Amino acid sequence: MKNLDMLTLNCREMSTMQNFKQQLPPLNSLVTFEAAARHLSFTLAAKELNVTQAAVSRQVKILEEALDQPLFIRYNRRLSLTPSAIIFLPDVRYALQFLANSAAALKLQKPATKQQSNNQNCVSIASTQAFATLKLNHWLLQFNREYPNIRVKLITSDTDINMPQQTTDLEISCGDAIDNSVLKSTFLFADEIFPICSPAYLAAHPKLNNSADLLNHQLLHLDAEHWRNLSWQAIDWHVWFTSQNIDTTAKLKGLRMNSYPLLLQAVLNGNGVALGWQHLVSDLLKTEELIKPIDVSYKSQRAYYLIETKQAQSAPVTHLSQWILQRAATDKNAC
Amino acid sequence: MKNLDMLTLNCREMSTMQNFKQQLPPLNSLVTFEAAARHLSFTLAAKELNVTQAAVSRQVKILEEALDQPLFIRYNRRLSLTPSAIIFLPDVRYALQFLANSAAALKLQKPATKQQSNNQNCVSIASTQAFATLKLNHWLLQFNREYPNIRVKLITSDTDINMPQQTTDLEISCGDAIDNSVLKSTFLFADEIFPICSPAYLAAHPKLNNSADLLNHQLLHLDAEHWRNLSWQAIDWHVWFTSQNIDTTAKLKGLRMNSYPLLLQAVLNGNGVALGWQHLVSDLLKTEELIKPIDVSYKSQRAYYLIETKQAQSAPVTHLSQWILQRAATDKNAC
DNA sequence: TATTTTGCATTACATTTTATTATGCGAAAT
DNA sequence: ATTTCGCATAATAAAATGTAATGCAAAATA
Fold first, then answer.
1. Which residues contact B301 (CB under 8 A, 6 or more apart)?
2. Phi, psi dihedral angles at A109 (to 5 degrees)
3. B24 with A256: Cβ contact below 8 A
4. How far is the CA of B51 from the C1' of D8 (A)?
5. CA B78 – C1' C28 distance (Å)?
6. Of the candidates A5, A315, A283, A328, which has an alpha carbon nearest to the alpha carbon of residue A158?
7. Chain A CB contacts of B267 below 8 Å
8. Most buried residue, A29, A262, A284, B9, by CB count within 10 Å?
9. Among residues B32, B19, B99, which one has the least CA distance to residue A25?
10. Tell me: the pLDDT tens digits for A95-130?
11. pTM for this entry
């Protein structure tokens, strides 16, 4: 999984990892920065941190130098944040709080065993929102009916790197290539992208014979935000049009969102045309709730894999894993 | 919004915030820990970090003392991670990478203006997955039809603290109380919780006359993971049964997931009974796609608010904000 | 308008933190 | 049996961080 963000990796590709020392700003100065930004006062921040005002001043300066830009605008008797600081501050808060929570949790659950999911017939599985909504949820409900005694837990996340605390037994992951060296991963299917809309929409907006016509349609977008945390390449309308040699310097209209299920909901309700992923929308194409208005498709490098995240899996995990592979094969043949 | 996680706050309630100094483990030692854990060797980590082996040893010790527990098991010539370290390591990686990315982004986009969303007739709005799926998506699509020239962007997230880089103009937030001091927030509606299922499910499993009967039914759960990042109190089947004075020491069966839309999808397809939120499922109750098998409900302290995240809003933002308030009022009266 | 006050910057110096060197120890490898 | 490897530890050196004192500029006050 060449392009998968390192943070999805449990142990794969660790060898190529860089150390953080070079990439990070001075960490301690972040705490000072946060306090100073919160108070908009070095003096008050110093009081809070039990140091002198000079210390705060110096720490802030160190951080500003590391980031190579000012974080505070010094007026005569007041401070304000620079645009950079406004962007940076929430990130710092988030990361520090995250670490604080994590450390606190560690201290508490000292006799942490964290084997809950592995014993007692439990299996946890992770996937994207989209895949869960369109495939996995149905599959797991079916599995649950067949094997009610296996306790299944479905964790969805669109950020790859989400919930690092959470380790699931299985994971359905998208990537651009495969590396089977460390974790056991099984190819499920490749993917393909094409425009989709509802039959009702096409009936109401019939003039849609080629890619260029799309420019005059209600386009529904997966916002850049959707792709931000994903490791695979964003494929949006802009990329699509470019692949069709159509110029899109003019800004594209239409609602933008960061969730594929929501996008699909909008398409199903006849609100416009969106880009569809073959293996996500196959069922909806079969039932003709969705149709391809034009027959042009874009082959993605992206593929789905089922990954077993641990070396030694318990029986129920292997069981579900096998079951899913079979289910996916059935699904694939049905297309 | 008393209980809202501080990280959703742009500036509200900052005064009550704690500083991080006390809550955080020694930050620099985290970098050393990460490298040591990656190499499973203090010597190699030292080489990577350009320090001596002794320095690594000491830093690890400092961290272990701060966390009050060992992170490495020292065998004679090799190391392994303790369970605590296995839990902690991904968190550390995540947070450090997050900071590194954020800092790198800052350095690059030096002339960062970040006003994209405010000019040019753009509005961005954030909500939970659930609220977007069941309400907001429809609303915004309608708004988009009425005002196609206003570019709307919908950002969904179930983590409160998600996407700190992202600042939206509007935000539909859930909380337990209201603080109107800093940001303009408008109460939308309170909430209420009760069991829901599909008519088909009830027909197939008719013996459901009171709360106690529920124990014998297919329960569908919002997993603890769903609540982990939310600031409001988790309300799951356990809490429900407790409120009904029903003992649930025995473990409850049924599929667990961390996404409300997925849970609802399962319920709609007749897979069991889940807990429904009044204002999310009202439309589905009206169309009788869902029903209340028993008439017992739990009043939640939780309420929805529309929040304007900035002091000075552009015209389209105010416009959408007003439109939503009106739309929400219509929705409420329709119940 | 003069005076005081406030709040950040700066410098020289003190303190604390962190790294180094050197050494020891125990188990694997030879 | 001997060597080698890898971590721990202690004393010490170096670096990082904090302090105290002072300066400066603009607001607040008189």
1. B176, B177, B232, B233
2. -75, 55
3. no
4. 16
5. 10
6. A5
7. none
8. A262
9. B99
10. 898 888 888 888 776 443 444 444 578 888 989 899
11. 0.74
